[in-house]
């Protein structure tokens, strides 16, 4: 892949060591180039607007503006995808980052190859990052006060066909296209078509937002057995 087609990445983290490490790892990839760094959320928003990265690797806890607000501003105004970084147990607001438009999230103790792969996945927008971890996180956070079923979202489910709704349930369980195809006895191409229709009908950006929608609409209830 040439420089012209390489993924443009912006790294935002207030910790110098993390920021330098992520930058070094990603800039060493043949299909990526780190176009900038930011030490706080406000700087990340400004850099994203100026540099137009394909993916922003975004820490949650940063000064001036946290990663959640920065994610919301970037996703609302730019085509850039956001990959959120979290310590998992200590960050209680990652769910809000997903609602803000983040394409996925990583734990900060990931391996270097996992980081690079995650950036590629989020850039492609065609898969949910770390499905088992994402499902666990979302299920934990939707149990919190204020994260109940939203009636107006539940009403929008009426626009889905039975197969589309079934596909959305499978996506919310964190299953891959191959796993969904096997469970529903269809081809992966059919699954991709269903997922595309679901996103289009519900006005969702990606599979992460589809997971959030599935829980907030009541289509999937935390703790229920998998379909």
Descriptive report:
There is one protein chain. This protein has 227 residues and is of the alpha/beta class. It is built from 11 helices and 5 strands; from the N terminus they run βαβαβαβαβααααααα. Strands 2-1-3-4-5 form a 5-stranded parallel beta sheet, with helices on both faces. α2 packs parallel to α3 and α9 packs across α10. It is globular and about 50 Å long. It starts with 6 loop residues before the first strand and ends in an 11-residue tail after the last helix. The model has no long low-confidence stretch (mean pLDDT 84).
Gyration radius over CA = 17 Å
Characterize the overall form.
globular
Determine the number of helices (DSSP H or I, runs of at least 4 residues).
Answer: 11
Distance between the termini: 41 Å
How much strand? 5-15%
**Helix- and strand-based class?**
alpha/beta
Sheet having the most strands: 5 strands, parallel
Number of β-strand runs: 5
Low-confidence stretches: none
Strands ordered across the widest β-sheet = 2-1-3-4-5
- Average pLDDT, to the nearest integer? 84
H and E order: EHEHEHEHEHHHHHHH
Helical content (DSSP H or I, runs of 4+): 40-55%
Structure at a glance:
It contains 11 helices and 5 strands, in the order E-H-E-H-E-H-E-H-E-H-H-H-H-H-H-H. Helix content is 51%, strand content 12%. The protein is an alpha/beta fold and 227 residues long.
Q: What's the structural blueprint in terms of helices and strands?
A:
Elements: E1 7-12, H1 16-27, E2 32-38, H2 41-51, E3 55-59, H3 67-77, E4 81-86, H4 94-99, E5 104-107, H5 112-124, H6 131-142, H7 151-156, H8 162-172, H9 177-184, H10 188-202, H11 207-216
Parallel strand pairs: 1-2, 1-3, 3-4, 4-5
Helix pairs in contact: 2-3, 6-11, 8-10, 8-11, 9-10
């Amino acid at each position: 892949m040439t420089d012209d087609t390489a993924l443009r990445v912006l790294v935002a983290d207030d910790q110098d060591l993390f920021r330098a490490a992520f930058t070094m790892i990603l800039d060493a990839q043949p299909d990526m180039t780190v176009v900038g760094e930011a030490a706080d959320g406000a700087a990340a928003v400004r850099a994203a607007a100026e540099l137009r990265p394909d993916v922003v690797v975004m820490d949650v806890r940063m000064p001036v503006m946290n990663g959640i607000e920065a994610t919301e501003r970037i996703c609302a105004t730019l085509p850039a995808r956001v990959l959120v970084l979290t310590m998992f147990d200590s960050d209680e607001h990652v769910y809000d980052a997903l609602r803000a438009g983040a394409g996925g999230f990583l734990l900060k103790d990931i391996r270097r190859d996992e980081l690079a792969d995650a950036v590629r996945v989020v850039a492609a927008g065609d898969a949910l990052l770390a499905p088992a971890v994402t499902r666990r996180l979302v299920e934990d956070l939707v149990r919190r006060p204020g994260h109940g079923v939203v009636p107006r979202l539940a009403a929008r489910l009426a626009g889905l066909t039975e197969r589309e709704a079934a596909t959305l349930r499978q996506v919310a369980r964190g299953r891959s296209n191959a796993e969904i195809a096997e469970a529903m006895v269809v081809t992966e191409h059919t699954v991709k078509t269903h997922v595309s229709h679901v996103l289009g009908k519900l006005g969702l950006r990606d599979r992460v937002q589809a997971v959030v929608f599935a829980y907030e609409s009541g289509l999937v209830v935390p703790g229920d057995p998998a379909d």
